[in-house]
Amino acid sequence: MFPIHRPRRLRKSETIRRMVRETSLSPDNFIYPLFVTFGKGVRKEISSMPGCYQESVDKIVRHAKEVCLLGIPSVILFGIPEHKDETGSGAYDEHGVVQKAIRAIKDKIPELLVITDVCMCEYTSHGHCGIIKDGDVLNDLTLELLAKEAVSHARAGADMVAPSDMMDGRVGAIRLALDDDGFEEIPIMSYAAKYASAFYGPFREAAESTPQFGDRRSYQMDPANRREALKEVALDIEEGADIVMVKPALSYLDIISDVKDSFDVPVGAYNVSGEYSLVKAAGKLGWVDEKRIMMEILVSIKRAGADLILTYFAKEAAKILNK
Ligand code: PBG
């Protein structure tokens, strides 16, 4: 009771604040997303995501080197193929953009951990995350393709695969296929609780993956649901997920916290494109202090319970943390 208790005593100087700080960020916590496209010498800025680029394999390798030098341990790759078709065949093509990028990065920077996003939406002409029949995404047929995609990434040298499609049973199907092909040591980071979110808007421009009809609400989760996230996560862990992820991050800090409290596996959180673009836009207008907002957002995601943060801010934040 006041005046005995004065919490301000422990806030008096930066030194004491540093000593009692409960949450600390490190570049070790970050995973940086990269967008790989076809061609050579391509580095095209994504208009809704300033500072992020679609890059051809040669440019990606240089960019990955920069990421590694900042002390960020890992990148996650997304592909923009030259051709899209009904079955997303570019996703499991041995000579696909992501497969090429994995080989090139692992060849030049073996210490950088390469994760791949496993999904069909960047490769299908209709932009959905699976095979379409009568306007609906077919779950079980899609699993075969996702498994093929994951195996082709592993064969190219990926260190970890990250399924983001939200089909039922995909983690189990991918685990089985990887093991069958001799990749029992490749971990799976599942996008376990992934919500049907408007915060993915800028990413869809970046990955050219906007659905041509309908939306993703028949497979991604309803933003209103909290308990269902625990069910999704439990199923993925049962099926063999090594790391589980919540996505998006900011509007879902309660979910991150629930998952952290309920399970003993590392928790990832995806600080998605819309969360990034909002900060960039307001920063550009001079409405907020962009750098401080960035660090506050990242620390809040960590405080909520995330061990790993996938974020387009990784390089900028690492620069600040490395000072
Ligand atoms: C699907 C995928 C998406 C994102 C990552 N993987 C988009 C979607 O589900 O529509 C979104 C990432 C972001 O917004 O930053 N392959």
Structural notes for this entry:
This protein has 323 residues and is an alpha/beta fold. The protein has a single domain (25-321), classed as Aldolase class I (TIM Barrel, Alpha-Beta Barrel), CATH 3.20.20.70. It is 39% helix and 18% strand. It has helices at residues 14-20, 57-69, 97-108, 139-156, 170-180, 201-207, 227-239, 253-262, 273-284, 290-304, 314-322; strands at residues 30-37, 43-45, 53-56, 74-80, 113-118, 131-133, 136-138, 160-163, 189-194, 243-247, 267-271, 308-311. β10 (243-247), α8 (253-262) and β11 (267-271) form a beta-alpha-beta unit. α9 (273-284) packs antiparallel against α10. The longest helix is centred in the middle third of the chain and has 18 residues, at 139-156. The model has no long low-confidence stretch (mean pLDDT 97). Bound molecules: ligand PBG. Ligand PBG binds next to α6.
What does this entry show, briefly?
With 323 residues, the protein is of the alpha/beta class. The protein contains 11 helices and 12 strands. Ligand PBG binds next to helix 6.
Structural features:
single chain, 323 residues, alpha/beta, two-stranded antiparallel ribbon, 11 helices, globular, binds ligand PBG
SSE topology:
Elements: H1 14-20, E1 30-37, E2 43-45, E3 53-56, H2 57-69, E4 74-80, H3 97-108, E5 113-118, E6 131-133, E7 136-138, H4 139-156, E8 160-163, H5 170-180, E9 189-194, H6 201-207, H7 227-239, E10 243-247, H8 253-262, E11 267-271, H9 273-284, H10 290-304, E12 308-311, H11 314-322
Parallel strand pairs: 1-3, 1-4, 1-12, 4-5, 5-8, 9-10, 10-11, 11-12
Antiparallel strand pairs: 2-3, 6-7
Helix pairs in contact: 2-3, 3-4, 4-5, 5-7, 9-10
Ligand PBG binds next to helix 6.
